[in-house]
Amino acid sequence: MGKEIDLMENYPKSKRDLTKRLEEKTSEDRALARKFGKEFFDGDRSHGYGGFGYNERFWGPVIPTFKEYYNLNENSKVLDIGCAKGFMLFDLQNQIPGIEIAGIDVSEYAIENSKEEVKEFLQVADARKLPFPDNSFDLVISVTTLHNLTKEDMKIALKEIMRVTKKDAFITLDAYRNDEEKKRMEAWNLTALTMMHTDEWKEFFDEVGYTGDYYWFIP
User: Fold this and answer.
1) CA separation for the pair 216, 141 (Å, rounded)
2) Which residue of 7, 42, 56, 201 is 20 to 30 Å from 83, comparing CA positions?
């Protein structure tokens, strides 16, 4: 198994009121969010981001951490699973000129409205069937995405990550370490189908054969 490491430590933390979010969130909001369309990205805040636009302050401070930890350079090839509008890949390309990037997302809306500078490197695709040959990438990243699958589908997706990477992988997943964090996660969650205790996740990685690095999203 890989290493539990917080490579997202410099990503800005949300300050939203979770109690209010739990009270306002409905099953209709969740259903709408899980379509991953315009409503999720650029619709009302109750069923998604409430406007998903580029701001360098999000991924800008995170890229140097990835660059240093994985020794990324202009010869590296990186895949982002759940790339949305490609903001992370844009900042990655800006900070490491010449790096080869690719991104996939299930959302046609996100890809159609992705950042123009990286749009040619993005495509609509399923994490359970990555459209790339074996050992295509030096690093495969998936941030707060794979937990949107069922547990059985996640097994397939994690095996796909292992198939297309020839070296490294890093994923983050919705998780909790105690009952209080579990309540907070349930209040936060709009789209995840699989949420587990951190120990359960580690057992799951072992079972599936995922040997990449990982960390948790805990609101």
Assistant:
1) 13
2) 201
Residue appearing with tokens 């359970």:
128
Give the domain extent around 213: 18-43+67-217
The reply to whether 199 falls in a domain is yes
DSSP state of 118: T
Residue 2 lies in a domain: no
Q: Is residue 120 part of a domain?
A: yes
The count of structural domains within the chain is 1
Range 3-6, long-range pairs (CB < 8 A, 24+ positions):
3/213, 3/214, 4/202, 4/213, 4/214, 4/215, 5/69, 5/213, 5/214, 5/215, 6/215
**CA nearest neighbour of 219 among 170, 176, 172, 171:** 176
The reply to whether 103 falls in a domain is yes
Could you tell me which of 46, 93, 41, 44 has the C-alpha nearest to residue 72?
93
pTM (2 decimals)?
A: 0.92
Give me 132's structure tokens: 């790339």
Distances in Å between the alpha carbon of 76 and those of 62, 66, 67, 136?
Answer: 17, 12, 10, 10
Tell me the pLDDT tens digit for each residue of 151-199. 999 999 999 999 999 999 999 999 999 999 998 888 888 899 999 999 9
Q: What is the CATH number of the domain that holds 32?
A: 3.40.50.150
